[in-house]
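[Structure tokenization] protein backbone as discrete codes

[Encoding] learned vocabulary of local backbone shapes

[Begin record] amino acids and matching fold tokens:

___
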Amino acid sequence: MSAYVIVEIDILDPAGYEEYKKLAGATVEKYGGKYIVRGGATEVLEGDWEPKRIVVLEFESMQRAKEWLNCEEYRELRKMRHRTAKTNMIVVEGV
């Protein structure tokens, strides 16, 4: 069953985050993931949630998504993301 990683991002260091973006995509692809949403325009339809940036990744399973997040290739990039942005991240199974 497909799984989706959903990330809410507040960029703190724009130049550093741009560098992260250039490098992260290859690790997502290596683990079979693909970007569904990558920072497009958002509009609040209900509630008071006002995310600055949203990223949605699709993987073949929750297991594969977690393998990507914890892989050796992404380890330093994950630290880079943490230095350059405040993030909230979940993984959810698709239907």
